[in-house]
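Q: What would this complex look like in 3D?
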Amino acid sequence: MDNQILKVNGLTMDFGGIRALNSLDLDVNRGEIVALIGPNGAGKTTFFNCITGIYAPTEGEVYLASPGSDTKVSLKGLKPNQVTEKGLARTFQNIRLFAKMTVLENVMIGRHCRTKATVLGAVFRNRTTRDEEQSILETSYDILEKVGLEQYVNEFANNLPYGAQRRLEVARALATEPLLLLLDEPAAGMNPQETIELEKLIKEISSEGQSILLIEHDMTLVMSLSDRIFVMDYGKKIAEGTPVEIRENPAVIKAYLGEDVDA
Amino acid sequence: MLLIKELKKALGVALWFIFLTFPIMVIKVDPIERIIRYRWENAAYVAIVAFTAYLVMSFFKMRKLRVTADKKEVKKSQNVIYSILNNKKQLTVLSFAILAIAIIFPHFFSVYQTNVMTTALMYVVLGLGLNIVVGMAGLLDLGFVAFYAVGAYSYALLNYHFGLGFWVVLPIGGALAAIFGIILGFPVLRLRGDYLAIVTLGFGEIIRLILENWGEFSQGPSGISNISRPGFFGMDFSLETSIMYMYYIMVIGVIVTIFIVNRLQDSRLGRAWIALREDEIACQAMGIDKRKTKLAAFSLGAFWAGLIGVVFAAKTTFINPASFTFLESAIILSIVVLGGMGSIIGVILGAFILILMPEYLRALSEFRMLAFGGVMVAMMVFRPQGMIANIRRTYKFEKQE
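A: Here is my prediction, written as structure tokens for the whole assembly.
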């Protein structure tokens, strides 16, 4: 049985005349932490937006493993909410929490696609709805405990400190029970202390078998976390390999530091 | 002591204003009869306005000072309403007291008062309906009155052509309005903010213009008259009892609405609406179907408008398109915004203030729109979250080991 959880083939995205992604291949195995790095404007976030259905890619295929069977499902043409339902949850580079909802409610929103109470259920509050609501509450609280936000349960999300807001985004994504968790620059803007805590959190989540694909600029974090690294520049993949391999890769050094003048 | 000092100052300000505005407010030259008329009553008005304006201003100034002096103290006193809302026992007592007053109300007050109160209760339901769309789901709907019209006309026409009674048409009117809500919802699924407001505004006008111009269908501007009042198992009432009956129908209507809207707010769907309002992209990324959620908001909001439309037709026994102008939408929207978006108690209070005030201040009817505008501006400047801001439900967790 193949171990791949995400398979991306020849993903291309054009914005008018600009080719933001150029025939990109990528794969993530079960239980792995894979990092996607590259200079600013390389197309990393565009890549996330394409696979999560926010943009419709011009060309290429995205396959996600489906739980309980060997076949993979194509994510092409699905809406963002359907992609999340299939098991791909993400966080955002610029925090996008539901500011005027409590921390707990933010996580409860993540349970939306795994529950199915209807209008009638909401009005009459029958047994099924009550049980479901109770399970939403419990799961959400457990997740908050896991990321260490349980003391903020009833706070408004926008009143949290910055690092806590980032962690709440992770909690919210985890609540959708993703097969693969996409983290878009989770450490952006964090101070060293918060980054260390985040690293611990990601390692903990990963140790429970969660597959993770992350975009990150903080190289120490990337090098210590990832099993494999993909490097992008100008919408193309320029390198792929373990952290050690990437560190030595001349193409990567060139993309980040530029070429030697007299070479 | 302080109060007397402030009163003296206010008096001084009033006198100054009389003096300053004397040439334009009091003296009037009548060029035809070649005499100068002195309108002393205007001087009195100027004095009263200046006097109260100064007092109100100094009140706010003093309150501000007190806030800086002792923040905690003020916070406590301001939060009386919230503390009642959070205390279940107090809340039950309060609701039963209000219910008791509501029940005995028509026996102590005149038919006119009862009628006015019925109107206010209708606007409570309308406000709560629009609150679903605007307050919770964050979709600015300026054409809400269209659904109200759909409800009213469905009763009027079904009664006129087929002789259907109030209770039969009530659910039909609500359902029809909900269907119209979905019809409006489809084209505006992609729109947000200003664009959405324009389209809904257009929709409201379209419905009104159709009713006005499609004579064979709706009898045009002359409207439909002799709509029958609601019956009670075939009993017919005198005018007076039927007004009272209408009032009780609305009391029950309001209770049912509050009950349902409250439950919706704390449900899976209610949370989805609020998430949609807060951030559409994040909301979708969290697995919420934007289409379904928006359509649910539009149709559920419209449903209440449809119900009240039927009640309106039955209450006035005559409707024409002039009852469903944009102004009506604006008033319902003001109720929601003034009361506090997303807050049920706020909307109820907003409806009472905006409907009862103009009714009891008929003496000032000429300045009604002026005062209305002034209140709205002041409200948006000083308290943009509305009179009673929405409070989210809090949860307590007890560790079970």
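A: To summarize the key features: Chain B touches chain A through 32 residues (CB under 8 Å). Residues 72-77 of chain B have pLDDT under 50 and may be disordered.
Q: Very helpful, thank you.
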